[in-house]
Specification:
Its main location: membrane. With 346 residues, the chain is of the alpha+beta class. It contains 7 helices and 10 strands. Among the domains are: 2-32, no CATH class; 116-180, Helix Hairpins (Orthogonal Bundle), CATH 1.10.287; 204-345, Heat Shock Protein 90 (2-Layer Sandwich), CATH 3.30.565.10. The chain is rod-shaped.
Length: 346
């Protein structure tokens, strides 16, 4: 308790000290003591307290949600970005079976990785085949060039006596070898243009039967192939189709020459036309399963060629590209020792 007088303020209180009851008095000058009265509303204080508590709880919840989103939303996105970066550097991904919010996206990236890996393997295989093909082509060009040079040097050597027949044989050899190199270069040029889709088809209505008949006659009139047996059958004398005649002539020539190149003279080559489907079949040595997988690929040469320096390894690839350019279908079937069958549907 306290009380005031004219000059001071007195504070009085009781205390218990060592079992003694004491009373103390404190005197303060009147001008040094102030009295303040504080009024407060309990409900308002509780409301303020609750608001502060809610703010704290909301902050904690926000931090928790941020942690969850970082762990389950942002982190998988970062992983996806890292996977894409790895792909760009040629590091392929392995399938991941862990649960993920972005499972579908990750599966698509994994599929893309596997496709790129397969494409790289096929590209490496093609590079290997191309290198082997270039080596073979280099040999194929070098061999006739050597023959051309040798015969030309003999003909140019005035000290070397040649009769007319020998001179004609040397000249004929030069012509044949030059034609071979020319055909080889033409194949390369045509294959490149077809691959780069630089061809514009010059289509016109062509009788398919007449076209094939002319190709067969042209081949059989060559003395080198006069002993081969080619059978030709069809169900209709007139089968009109819109074709690029020159290109399709090249297709059928390549297919027949392929049958001749890879077989002995005793081979029987059968050509049959039914409606818009052409079937070319031989009873020769056939093609093994490995060769059959690559038979229409560029730069690929079969393993059963009987004649040296014949074929560029582009003939069937050119035929395939021309048929596809006509929106046709070409396929091959064979077993080793049972001949080869090639079917074209236009």
């Amino acid at each position: 308790m306290y009380q005031t007088n004219e000059s001071s303020t007195i504070f009085i209180n009781d205390i218990q000290l060592n079992e003694s009851h004491l009373t103390y008095l404190l005197f303060f000058p009147l001008d040094l003591v102030r009295r303040y009265t504080l009024h407060y509303n309990t409900e308002e204080m509780m409301m303020t307290h609750n608001i502060l508590l809610m703010l704290i709880v909301n902050c904690l919840i926000a931090l928790f949600i941020s942690y969850i989103s970082t762990r389950y939303l942002v982190k998988p996105l970062n992983d996806i970005i890292q996977n894409i970066v790895s792909l760009s550097k040629g590091h392929y991904l392995k399938p991941n079976q862990k649960p993920s919010l972005y499972r579908e996206v990750e599966d698509r990236i994994t599929d893309l990785s596997q496709q790129l890996q397969v494409a790289q393997y096929e590209r490496q295989q093609m590079d290997t085949v191309r290198e082997e093909w270039i080596a073979n082509i280099s040999h194929d060009i070098k061999t006739p060039l050597t023959s051309i040079r040798g015969n030309a040097e003999i003909m140019a050597d005035m000290s070397y006596e040649m009769d007319l027949i020998s001179r004609q044989k040397s000249a004929q050899t030069i012509i044949e070898k030059s034609d071979y190199i020319k055909n080889l270069v033409d194949d390369l040029n045509l294959s490149t243009r077809l691959k780069n889709k630089e061809f514009i088809l010059n289509k016109k209505q062509v009788n398919l039967v007449s076209l094939l008949r002319h190709v067969i006659i042209e081949i059989m009139n060559d003395p080198k192939y006069e002993n081969y047996n080619i059978q030709f059958s069809y169900d209709n004398e007139y089968i009109p189709l819109m074709l690029d005649e020159l290109l399709m002539r090249r297709v059928f020539t390549n297919l027949m020459m392929n049958a001749i190149t890879h077989n002995e003279e005793s081979v029987l080559i059968s050509i049959d036309i039914k409606d818009h489907t052409i079937t070319l079949k031989d009873n020769g040595v056939g093609v093994c399963e490995e060769d059959l997988l690559h038979i229409f690929k560029r730069y690929y040469r079969g393993t059963n060629t009987k004649k040296p320096n014949v074929g560029s390894g582009l003939g069937l690839a050119i035929a395939y590209d021309i048929v596809k350019l006509h929106e046709g279908i070409i396929s091959a079937s064979s077993t080793r020792g049972n001949g080869l069958t090639i079917t074209i549907t236009l």
